[in-house]
Amino acid sequence: MIKFDLDTYRLRFSLTPIKHGVTGLMLMISASVFSQSNKTMFFKAGFVQQSTFENRLTSNYRGGVGLNLELGFEKTSEKYVSRFSLDYSKANQGKSYISYSTIYKVDLKYENLKRIHTIKGLYIGGYIDVGTMINEKNGLWGSTNNPISFTQWASLGMVAQYSVKFKNDYLWNMSLSTPIVSYIIRPSYGSVWPDKFLEPQNFNLYERGIVTAGLKSGNVALFNNFSNTIIKTSMYFPFKNSQWHYGLEYSFNRIHTNEIKPLKQFANTISISFKRL
């Protein structure tokens, strides 16, 4: 169900189970126009350390270090925080060339949080994101018939943020986000294509094309079957006579899914960030 309230300029999404006796799951993603708001942009660059286990490609964890970039815009008021961000990372994994794999990950996310008045600095809300992670084999290890694996998702989730601003204009943030329901597309065990890709109702090269068949090849997964949990903490310091702040951020990301074949990834990221307040 989708509602648009012209008085508050707020777009509401809700997912409600229809079975009796089941508590409804409500998720609101609000695109709000604030009467008194501050617009902010931010940029982050740093290093990411990844450890990845993917059953269809290898039987153990493979680790490596790579680059992480993030660009975003934020709007804040006394009652709400609205944030749009694009996150990109690339890391090589493996101990020798023939066992290398390259992990690419892109995540586009919109978050909207409401201030909890009983606890100063606490904001709670929801988010919607679309992302993809590609595991590309560079060498000849494993099965040469499956050189690429991927995970694509679109999720609705929950996010919480706690912020403290000190008298000297220092700013400390900590946040936690995790998906509740997601649409996941994963390749089958013996092919680079998803299991449902070639089914007659999905694949018709002349009428629908490859993209449509791919998008119809996924599965709906709740939080117990797909996890993309992110924990962030950051500290910002002001530049002298400037609206810009510089800071240091640490991020921990855990991705896990059992769709088709198990995938687990742990990523630790340390970034230098710049933010206009």
Largest sheet: 10 strands, antiparallel, barrel
Domain tally: 1
Beta-strand content estimate = over 45%
Query: In which range does the helix fraction lie?
Result: under 10%
Rg for CA atoms? 21 Å
Task: List the uncertain runs.
Answer: 1-35
Describe the structure.
The protein is mainly beta and 277 residues long. It has one domain (36-276): OPCA outer membrane adhesin/invasin (Lipocalin), CATH 2.40.128.100. Helix content is 3%, strand content 59%. It has one helix spanning 209-215, and strands at residues 2-5, 10-13, 38-54, 62-76, 80-93, 101-115, 122-137, 148-165, 171-185, 219-222, 226-238, 244-257, 263-276. Strand 12 (244-257) and strand 13 (263-276) form a beta hairpin. The radius of gyration is 21 Å and the shape is globular.
What are the defining features of this structure?
mainly beta, Lipocalin, disordered N terminus
Question: What's the arrangement of secondary structure elements?
Answer:
Layout lengths: L1 E4 L4 E4 L24 E17 L7 E15 L3 E14 L7 E15 L6 E16 L10 E18 L5 E15 L23 H7 L3 E4 L3 E13 L5 E14 L5 E14 L1
Antiparallel strand pairs: 1-2, 3-4, 3-13, 4-5, 5-6, 6-7, 7-8, 8-9, 9-10, 9-11, 11-12, 12-13
